Amino acid sequence: KKEKGKSMQLLRAIGFFHGNILLFCVTTGVGIFVSPKGVLKYSSLNIAVSLSIWAACAVLTMITALSLAEMGTTFPRSGAPYYFLKRSLGSSVAFLSLWIKLFTYPLGIATQSLIISTYLIQPFYTRCPAPELLKKCLALATLWSLGLLNARGVLTVAWFQTISILVKMAVLCFISFTGIVLIGIGKKENVARFEKAFDAELPGVSQIAEAFLQGLFAYSGTSVLINIAGEIKNPGENIPKSLITVLPTVAVIYVLVNISYLAVLTPQEIISTDAVAVTWMDKVIPSMQWVISFGISTSIVSNMCCTILSASRLFYTASQEGQLPLIFSMLNNYFSPTVAITQIIILASFLIISSDLINLIKYSGLATWVLRGLYMIGLLKLRYQEPNLPRPYK
């Protein structure tokens, strides 16, 4: 039936403005509030090395993101990375990538849920760690609430992000500005650790690799526009423009935020806490600790919402291509793949119940960059096999 055929298609409802909002929200979420601990730990507490790794991660992310932009503009459809792998490297590789992402997406979502609950609860337990059961219950409640929000469609998610970005920008700008002021004042304790930054022990090669995985996790999510390319207006123009506009801005903010952390906290203090920003606020303005916790949690919620959106489109496309049951491509009245969203939420719930935060980040980051390596191979192969394929962006 005509109405039935219409209901199976996603709508192109996201323009340049909302595309920028979604990209900024998903790349400035969980990572900057948790990865500094891992980067510094595996940098052997060497401040110069850790800041260099943050900058290198930004450059590498920009290169891979712009390569992914070629993929999304050449095949402007939702779940573009999956479809692209099937077209360039074959059904077997695409199927393998699907099953990797079947676990990595819930891994990332579970990680974000736990970090949200940690930041919300920790201010009430200033002298001891928060109970694990309480954190997990709050994480599950947040997870299912965002699943219901995603079921309302992509435009509802985009408007939710437009509101939450104001809170996110306020938090990041406050942390960055405060750190610059503290260094500018020239207090001995704030400047001393930067003066001795190059005197610290250098990490080994394996430690640097671990630090890169932690840092790259903070930049994960840059493929959100590629995954929803079928819902973006004029994707050949808007996707590259959004990446070139947003990612350099994010990179600068990340470096400033890390400098601010280091201006207030010692490396030992940073690696001893899972809630770096809350510990930072406790040193700067202790009475306002709950404000920063709420702001950071709101920020991570918006990131998590985008991740669920992105993951559901992958399952939707794989279902249409016959590699998942057809039920995953069924849409509700809001043109949202509700069954795919529900599956993601259920898998993430299991991971929340039995989890370790640092290992979740490590495994998620490793799998993500294995897949990005496959995308680069596929791009080169398709350039050779189909040189005349229309490519709005190279």
UniProtKB/TrEMBL annotation:
Keyword annotations: Cell membrane, Disulfide bond, Membrane, Transmembrane, Transmembrane helix, Transport
Superkingdom as given in the UniProt entry: Eukaryota
GO-annotated molecular function: L-amino acid transmembrane transporter activity
Coiled coil: none
Residue ranges crossing the lipid bilayer per the database entry: 12-35, 47-68, 80-100, 165-186, 243-264, 290-311, 331-354
Pfam families assigned to the protein according to its UniProt record, in alphabetical order: AA_permease_2
Annotated localization: Apical cell membrane
Gene3D superfamilies referenced in this protein's UniProt entry, alphabetically: Amino acid/polyamine transporter I
One cellular-component annotation, GO: apical plasma membrane
Subcellular location, principal: membrane
Membrane topology: Multi-pass membrane protein
Keyword Membrane (UniProt): yes
Family the entry assigns: Belongs to the amino acid-polyamine-organocation (APC) superfamily.
Protein's name according to its UniProt entry: Solute carrier family 7 member 13
Species of provenance: Neovison vison
Designated gene of the protein: S7A13
